[in-house]
Each structure stands twice: as C-alpha cells, then as structure tokens.
Amino acid sequence: MKQRQYNYINKLIDSRIALARSATALATLFALSGNAFAQDSAAGANNGAATQLAPIVVSGQSSGASDNTTVAAKKSSGATKIDTPLVETPRSVSVVTRKELEERGAQDITEAVRYSAGVQTGSYGFDPRFDQIYIRGNDVTTDGDYRDGLRQPYMNYAMFRTDPYALDRVEIIKGPVSVLYGAGSPGGIVNKISKLPTEETIREVGVFYGTSDRAQTMFDFGGPVSKDDDTMLYRIVGLARKGDTNFDIADDRYFIQPSFTWKSDDATKFTVYGSAQSTETDANVGAMKGPDGNILDFRDSDPDYDYQKTRQQQVGYQFEHEFDGGFTFRQNLRFSHLNLKSRYLSTLGWTGTVANRGATAIGDRMNVFQVDNQLESKFNTGPAAHTMLFGLDYTRMRDSFAYGMDATTSPAYDFDITNPTYGVSGPTPAYNFSRVGASLQQFGAYALDQIEVDKWRFTLGGRQTWVKQSTDTTLVSSNTTTNDSLNKSAFSMQAGALYLFDNGIAPFTSYSTSFNPVTQRSASGSILNPAKGEQYELGVKYQPPGTDILLSAVAYHLVEKNKPVLVDPLTGIYASLGEVTNKGIELEAKANITDGWDVVAAYSYNHSEITRGNNAGNTPAVTPQNIASLWSNYTFQEDSAARGLTVGAGIRYTGETYASTANTAKNDASVYLDAALSYDFGAVDQKYKGLTASVDVRNIANRRLTVCNEGYCYLGQGRNITASLKYRW
What we know:
Elements: H1 2-14, H2 16-32, H3 34-47, H4 62-66, E1 75-76, E2 84-85, E3 93-96, H5 98-104, H6 109-113, E4 119-121, E5 133-135, E6 138-139, E7 145-147, E8 150-151, E9 167-174, H7 178-181, E10 188-194, E11 202-210, E12 214-226, E13 229-242, E14 252-265, E15 268-281, E16 287-289, E17 295-299, E18 307-322, E19 327-351, E20 354-381, E21 384-405, E22 415-416, E23 434-453, E24 456-475, E25 480-499, E26 505-516, E27 531-542, E28 549-561, E29 564-568, E30 573-576, E31 579-594, E32 597-612, E33 626-635, E34 645-654, E35 657-658, E36 666-667, E37 670-680, E38 691-698, E39 707-709, E40 712-714, E41 720-728
Parallel strand pairs: 7-10
Antiparallel strand pairs: 1-2, 3-9, 4-5, 5-6, 7-8, 9-10, 11-12, 11-41, 12-13, 13-14, 14-15, 15-18, 16-17, 18-19, 19-20, 20-21, 20-22, 21-23, 23-24, 24-25, 25-26, 26-27, 27-28, 28-31, 29-30, 31-32, 32-33, 33-34, 34-37, 35-36, 37-38, 38-41, 39-40
C-alpha cells in the first residue's frame, strides 16, 4: 500500500500538467536566488571547505525575535516543539513573519495566511464571524487553531479569535501533527505566536482609518522593567476598533494583552501572560435567495437587528528551566473562557416579492484548561546527536450551548426586494429549541527524537492519546434529554528524513498520522466519530547559505477518514463525509532578493476526491484544484530620490470550486489584486525617525463574487482601503 502511494507521488511529480506549471515557477524562483547561490559556492571553493552547518538551538520564542526583519523565516519550533532551522525540518512549514504581516497590512488571520502555499481562505465568502481557513483541502477552522503551542478549541459554535496586531508571527504546519499536539485537522494547524516580552525596548502607538468608517487605535510597549536590569521584562499590547465593513456588517474589537517575564538566572525563565478581548460582528452574513432560488445582492439578515458578540479571556504562563547534564524542562499552561451571544434574521418563506423572515438566537459558553509538560534531553550515540523530547499534556473543556427561534415569522421582519429597506428592530428569541452541555478530556503522552548524523536529519515520534467525551442534548419543547458519550484512545506517529547539502538544497520525505476526537454534533445531537488522517510527503527545500531566501517544492498524499463537514452554518450541525483523499503539489518562495526587495510567491495544485461514503468520486465542496499568489514589496534605498517610500503589490487566484459535494453547481474562479504604500518620514529628517504612514488596498478592482457552500451562499467583500499612522521610538 505504502509503495503504491509513493509511486503515485512520483507519477504526480512527473505528470506533464504539473511540470508545465511547476517548471516555470521553479525556474523563476531559483533564478532569483542564482546570484546568491553562485557567490556562496564560489566562497566555499575559495576557502577550500564545506559550509558549516548551523546547530539546533532550543530557546523558547527566540525564532520569532530573530525573524522579525525578514519575510523568509530561518527557524520554527511549531513542527517539532524544538527551535529548528526550517531548511533542516523534514516536513512542510510556512511562516508568516511580523515583517510580512506589516508589509501586507493584514487585518485578520485570514489575510495573514492567504499568501501561503496550500492555504485557502474565502470558502464562505466574506464571513467576519470566524477565521475560515483550509489547508490542503481540509478545514482547519475548528480543529487547527492554535496559539503559542496550545489549541484554541471549538466544541459547539463559538470560536476564539486572534488579532494579527497581538502576534509576532504565524506558523502553518501542514499535514497531521497529532504526535505533538493531539487533536488536530489532518490538513495541519495554524499556530499563532503572541507578542511577549523581549530585552529590546519597544514603544509604538498608531491610529488607523478605513472603509466604512473603520477607526482604530493601537499600542505596543515593552522591554526591561528597569533600565539597568534585564532579568525582569514586560510587554503590553492593546487595540480599540469601531466601525463597519461591507454590507454594514459590524467590525468592533477591543483587546488588551499584558505579559511579564522573570529570568531568575541564565537557566530559568518564567513568563506569565493574559489577554481580554471583546468582538462584535454580525451573525448571519449570508446572501438572500429569491423566490426563484437565484442569489440576490441583499443580505438575508438586517444590520440593525443582527449581532454576534464574543467575549474571551485567557491567562497562562510559560516556564523553562535548564538542568545540568543537557536536560531542559518546559511547562506551558493556560486557562481560557469564551462567551458568545448572537441573534439574526433568516428567510423562512416568500409572499410574492416579500421575504418572510424569522429571528434566531444562539448562546455559547466555554471554559478550557490546558497544560503541556515537556522534558528535553540532548545526548550522543556514536555519530548521532539526539535531541529527545518527552511530553505529557492534558486538556479539559466544558461547553454550554443554547439555541432558540421564533415559532413563526413576524411582519416586522418582512423584506420587500422591490423596495429594500433595512433598519428593523425586535426582541431576542428565548432559547426555546435546544440546550447542549458538552465536555471533553484529553490526555496524551508523546516522545520525539530529532537526530543529526553528519548531513542527515531524522525525526521519529509517537503519541498515545486518551479521550473522554460526553454530550447532553435537551429539546426544550418536550423537555427530553438524550445523552451521548465517547471514550477513545489512539496511537499516532510521525517520521521524517532530510539530507542537507552544503549548497543549501535539502530533499526530504515524511510520514505522519493524526487522530482527532471531533466535538461536532450531527443533526440528532450525537457526537461524530473521531477523524483520522495519514499523509506522505516528498519534497525539497533550498536556502542558499547566508541569504534571506527559502524555496520549497513538495508533493503529498493525504487521506482523511470520518471527515466532518458543516451542513448548517447557522446552527453548527455537521455530518461525517466518509473518506477524502487529497493529492497535490505545492511551491513556495519567501525571499529578500536584493536590499529592500521582498517577494512572497506560492502555487498549490490539489486533486481532492471523496473516495468512500456518499458521493464517492465527487470533489468536496469549495475545494479548488489550483491556488496561486504573488506579493512583491520594494523599499527605496537611501541613495534614491524616493528614499523612505515602500510600495507593494499582490495578486491572488483561486480556481473554480463545486458549491456542494453533490457537484451539481460551481463557484467561479476568482482573481484579486492588492496594493500597499508606506512612507518613513525619518528618511526626510531624523527628527521624524519612527513616524510612518501607510495605505493598504485590498481587492483593488472591487470584485464581489458570491460563494455558495452546501446550500448557503455568501456575498464577497468589495474593495477595502485602510490608512494608518504609526510612531515608534
């Protein structure tokens, strides 16, 4: 079986279609780095010695701090929980650095990741309720959301949200990662790394204004508490935003994120942190379907009635201590609370040209406790240098969900499409339909060995996971309760091998499995069966020594069993799809070509097919075969008359998709253009050093494409323009 899957990958790489697309892209990307490669090769020849390989370093959040000045990250701890050079990591990882986030002016997580290979956003059109993200054809919105190495979990409806301004970087680990993280989508995870204290003094304030009266102010302060003492560090980040987006959808957010680090000595580090966030947007952003079934350019709900209010708080700590003898202990602990209230209108029927709408209400509360204990050991066995990681983690979640709706439509909510008028008001329905109480406990024991033998890099890991779930569903009208429980255990594994040539070329292969105790409910209220995943990868990375360039090409074969699919986005009802197989190729380049010129390019080809269950042979909904993007950013240098000016432009393409797993209708392909412009006033006069103005434009052509997904359709977001002024000192 495994041999056949590897044979398929070889055929996939050799196929004429893939090569036609891949060869052009790879030739371009490798040509961009040709000069740097030639220089390094020449230097190596002149010195008469091979390039010295960088050692593996373990230092908590160090990778983020060292990568903030480039778009081509050098290291990541997300794939192994060990701070490892990306070019030496035998699996696919994409990193969006702080520099890239700022260059593109990312305002939410979907904007942050959408220029990365294998990543798809916009599967629900413009939907500001959640950060809807797919990786390699798999929805990671609910099962792949991580922050600082701990999952931001989902149970019934509510989801945690993270603002990019609170982050140092975003790491996208592709494929199953259950060995280190337990529950997770087979497609991978999106790990968001928070801004935490650093020894560098940070002082930043900013104001922001954009489309639909979107006003925002933000600040970021940090550094040593005392000028002459770097053992105590602090950081506090905050943001306040008020305004709307397209279609009068609210986009309000307020957050505060303080943190404090105490380094009692060189071997011990303790960081405590907290965050509180309030977000308000709209609950039903779907498009209205007319009496003939056609999609109308109207929202189904009403902006004056509709809201989705979320309050979330998180508090935790990160502890690290290095013992004598090559041992390091780390503990990452967090408690999270989430409270969501929403209400909306939806069309229940038609009287001529009048939509008869009814009201719905949702309430959801969730408490989460998580702790991850890690013991790391470094030792040698003959020529092999080992970095061994042992871990024990525990997660406990409790959730209370309530759902209510009006028994009949109300004339006050009627909407005449021949005379569209918004601005209705009315009461919030009682939670009169169903109440769901759910809990989940997960315990995991894992081990990972990262081995270095000359130019070879190997990883081998395994994990045993035990999960206990329960759900109590009460139908309010009949006062009847059904109970469902699930106790499961599973073993997950991963293995990888990579060979690092002196010139920076690193071919690799990997294998990994996943086990995901999903919390999604079926229409009957029962818990869906756990999802399982298996992936093979074969690829090559290229990082010319001494450059800020990282290129990668990879082919993969990914299978998911018991895939959960959202069938009702308004109530959060899911169904198991059966088995889905994704086979594809990804190309990615993150490069600083010359002084001031950054390029981020990505291409993804994914053949997705339902291989077992209902609709076998079909393609899953909203799963494109081709995705491509290119971003280029240039800062004029000091010897230029335009010094201080930075210009950027990008293009994003997503191929056509099916609107449902039945494959009876399609969504059109989309192309979007983005642009950015900023000016550093310090280039004119040093007294203005640190003052920067910027303008970002998303969707320049104002294309508004409707996306339909399993019977629900969503209007696309139009042109969005934002301007900001920041001062750093």
